[in-house]
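[step 3/7] fold_predict: job queued, chain A
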Amino acid sequence: MLKVFRRIMNRNAKIILYALLIASAIFFGFEFRHGYNRNVDLGRADPSTNQSTAASEPVRVTSSKQVGQMMTYGFLGFFSLLILGILAARDISALVAHRMERFIFDEDLEGERNPEYEEAEKVWANGQPLEAIQLMREYLQAHPREQYVALRIAEIYEKDLGNYIAATLEYEEILKKNLSPERWG
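[step 4/7] structure written:
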């Protein structure tokens, strides 16, 4: 059911739904105000005229119908605004969540990539894992806090070269590093 709702809520459907909800809220709001003003005008009838109870009875019936109609418009306007608010809150929270996710998990990393490490990855991609390991070791000596490079070296030993002993030794070296508790997580 949720998948069906997501398919229905494509961009065009959302725009149409927003437009309908805004139009209905405005329409029901104006009708409520019109009915309210009409009932207030009936309530201000001049009390100095001595109208009999029989003559005032049809006004009460008409007035109660108008009050019922006014309240119906009021409820419909309220529910239109409620649904509009829920949809807007859902879209705004999705937008904020998407932007926060992009901020936290920045996969582009355009400004943060080191050309030395990228060169080592290119050498590995060209089918030269031993040369890539050597370049990564040099990079790791220059930047000892970037332990992801040591993990990458162990991964190359394990998956590309099939040397599980060397991979194990690399993983052991990583475990010997004195990292802060935040970085171990």
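[step 5/7] annotate
Confidence is low (pLDDT under 50) at residues 52-56.
The chain has two domains: 2-104, 115-184.
exit 0
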